Structure formats: C-alpha cells, structure tokens
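Reviewers asked in the last cycle whether our approach scales beyond single polypeptides. To address this, we selected a multi-component target totalling 454 residues and predicted its structure end to end. The input consisted of the following lines:
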Amino acid sequence: MAPEVVKVHPPIVRIAHWLNALAVLVMITSGWRIYNADPLFDFSFPDQVSLGGWLAGALQWHFAAMWLFVLNGIVYVAYGILSGHFRRKLLPLSPLGVLRDIAAAFRGKLAHDDLTVYNAAQRAAYLGLIFLLMVLVLTGLVLWKPVQFHWYGQYIGDYEGARLLHFFAMAGVGLIVAVHVAMVALVPRTFPSMITGRIRRSV
Amino acid sequence: MKKVMGASFEKFRTPEVKRMERRLFLRQGLSLGALALLTGCAITEEEKIQNVLMRMSGWNDDVQGWLFSSNRLAPEFPESRITKPFPFNAYYSEEEVIDVDGGAYKLELGGMIKERKPWTLPELYALPQVSQVTRHICVEGWSAIGKWSGVRFSDFLQRVGADTSAKYVGIQCMDDYSTSIDMATALHPQTQLSFKYADQILPPKYGFPMKLRMPTKLGFKNPKHIAAIFVTNEYPGGYWEDKGYNWFSGS
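The resulting structure, written as structure tokens, was:
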C-alpha cells in the first residue's frame, strides 16, 4: 500500500508550538541568569548558556518574554479546549498505558506506524508539560508581585515557597523538553510535520 | 518620555558618582560588545533589542501601576519570624557604610511641597510612629523579615503639604544613592519613613538616620541615609533604575 499523506497539527497548533518554543527558551535561559544572582542550591548555571549578560538584563528579557509566553499559551489552551483538540489528541489517559508505553520505549519497541495518534507516554508528557507551564505562570506571578497575588500565594508557601516551586517546575519542563527533542531525533520524520502540518501515515 | 535620565538628581551628583557611573557604563558596554562579537550581531542590532527591552520594561511599569492596590497590604509577621542577622545590602560593601552626624543632620524637602523647611532628627522623632514586621524581597531573589518603626509616609507628606496629585516622589541619599517611586506607593498605608530597626535607632548599616521602608517594593527601592525628598511630575529615575532595573519594581 502506498504511504498515505495525512494532515496533522492544525496551523494554530504549529504556530503556537514554535512561539512557545521560542518563549520558553528565552524564559529558561534568562531565568538561569536570574537564579545565578542568588542560587537556591549549591550550583549555578554556566553564563555561556544564560541570557541577559547581567541580572538587570536577564530580568528585562524574562519580563518581556513572559508576555509572549502567556498570551500564546492562553490562545493555545483556549483553542485546545474549545475545539476539542485536547480531548481528541491527549485523552483518554490511563496510568497503566503510560507505564506500558514508557517500558516499550526503553526496549525500543514503541510503535510509530500512525503518527496522527499520540501514544500514552506522549499524552502524559504533553499534558504534563502544559500543567508545568501553568505552574510556572502561577508561581511566577507570585514571585513577580508577591503582595498583589498574596491572596493565592499564601497557599503555595508565599514568596519563598513559590521560588522553590518555580525552580522545580522549570526543571520538570527542562526534562520533558530534553526527552521530547531526543524523541524527535529518534523519529526524525515527525520534525517537518510540525512545520508543514502533513505526515505519511505508514512507511 | 519617562525613561529620560532624571534632571532632578543632576544637582546632587558628585563627580565621584559620575566617575563610578562611567566605569559601570563602560564595563557593560564591553560585555555587550563581546556578546555582539560572539553572536555576529552588529551593535545597531544590539541597540534595537535594548530599545525593545526598555520599552517592555516601561510597559511593565504601567501594568504594575494598574495591578497595585492601595488597600492590598503586604503580609505582616510575628517578631519570632524576624531574620537574624538581617542582611546588609547596598551598591557598596559593608566597610564603606557612611557615618552620618545625627546632630547636624537635616532632612531637605523640595519640589511640589508647600512647607519646605528642613527637619532635624528630634523634630522627626517627635512625630507619631508606627511599627511593621514585613518581608524585604531583594531583586536578586533572597528575602528577609525585619521590623521597622517610623512615621507613616502618607502622614508626613500630608503634614508638609505635598501635592499628592503629582506623579513621583524622588529620594536623594547621602551615600550618592537615589531612587524614585510612584505617588500611589508613597501614599500606601505601609510605606514608612523609618527611624528604627528592631526597636533601636537605625544603625549605620541599615541606613541611619532614616530609610524609606516599602514592603510593596523590591529592596533596592527602599533607600537608606535619606538626604532629601522631593515631589515632582518629571520622571526622576534612580541609581539602579538608570542602569536597567525596572523602575516600578513593585511587590
């Protein structure tokens, strides 16, 4: 049977994906420079991979890119919920299925015949990423304006609690992004589909 | 308009401060130049990016002004939560803290204020005082809880007949530091002209003879060793603000 070319990733998802990739890259690399001004733990991020040059520059980048990050995120999540995109692509999700697919991936036996359907490990990763990015926004608002957002900041350990949560959510995002990029490298034909929106169903 | 370097502070700038600013400016210029070489970016591109970032910072000033509420109070803590020792911070090291002669000290007032008579310390100490135990949050990320006592700044501004419809309150300090705040924050009930830390007259390292304590602003917006306070509609800038830190820097 000849490979069939099908449409995946509607334009709004592709645009949101790349804007988000850019925004998250700027947020994380400038965030590292901000972290370095007063490290929470016994390590710093190398200056060469951080953005902003010094604390004030990093803060300028962070608080400029946050607008792109949040506005793009709102458009994406609103589209995902209202159009049924999330329901169709990311649900249902069973914990057992996730474990099974992760185990299969480690044995190199995770099937990729139909790239229009996300496997359970992908669904968990993408939902987890959306969740962590939301945590970053909510904890970030408490760090930015701890008094104005104290009404909910008090439930997440106030300023210092939000600082820890913000850091760990960033670490979680970093981990998911690293795995995501590694998976794209392993299954390279997924990469152009996030640009063109088309993919061959089977090979 | 707002981001033009404040003229109001110019008269207070000593040659030493100007030299220091030039040095810092050169150092930043060098690091920007190195970055431009690395990325292959022309300096003009660098400037364009800088301009966009500065404009976004100005937009963030406006958003913070809009988010700010005079009724929303910074959390207050029991005295058992006070951080000991409370950290020292300034643009210089602790050994360089200035010694101010309290006997000769006079607080100068300027700008859109009716009664500009200078205030001696005994006159200031005689004003009704309040205390607060609040969290100081540094732009670097760390935070510490302390106790400050002094006169509510809105009471003081009213007493001296400040025009509270003006946009800014500027503060010039004896250690050549300066900053400026929005009028809404100046009138916030927790904004305090502080004379004491932990029930003791402010020691030099915490800003003798007085600091402006604002739990609704980042630490660097809380000036120490205050020499003069003025009310103005012209954006006055400030020491760190002129170097790129966000002007509003509210909490």
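Chain A has one domain: 5-200. We regard this as preliminary and will revisit it once experimental data from Aim 1 are available.
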